[in-house]
Description:
By secondary structure, the chain is an alpha/beta fold. It has one domain (8-94). 42% of the residues lie in helices and 16% in strands. It has helices at 19-25, 46-50, 63-69, 76-85, 87-92, 104-118; strands at residues 8-12, 32-35, 55-60, 95-98. It has a 4-stranded parallel sheet with strand order 2-1-3-4. Helix 1 (19-25) crosses helix 6. The chain is globular and about 45 Å long. 29% of the residues are buried. The mean pLDDT is 93.
Amino acid sequence: MDTPQRPVVGIVGPCASGKSTLIRRLSRAPYRFKHIAQEHSYVPDMWRRLTNPDVLVFLDVSFAEANRRRAMPWSEEDYRAQQHRLRHAREHADFYLLTDGLTPEEVAATVLAFLESFL
C-alpha cells in the first residue's frame, strides 16, 4: 500500500524572521518543511526552482526587530536589499506573517492553524 507524501511547505523570509525556529518547532507536524534561503539569491523565483513547495509561507520581520533578535552586521540598506530579493516569493506566498511582537510559539501556532485550514 502506498503512503501519501506529506505536503512540502516552503518557509521563506528575511534573516531573523524566524524561519529556522519555526521549522524546529513544527518538526513533528505532518508536513515536510523546507527552509528556503531566497533572501541571499538574486534569482527572483529561486524559491520555486529549489523547492517548488506545495505551500509557500512567508515570514517577515522589521529591520528593528531583526536587529533586536540577532546582532547582525548589516545596514537598513542591506535589509531593504533582502526585501527586494524576496519580493517574488512574497507576491506568491500562500500565507504571509509579520513575526514582530510574536513569540516563537505564537508564530508556530499561527502557521500550523493556517496549514490545517489550507491543506
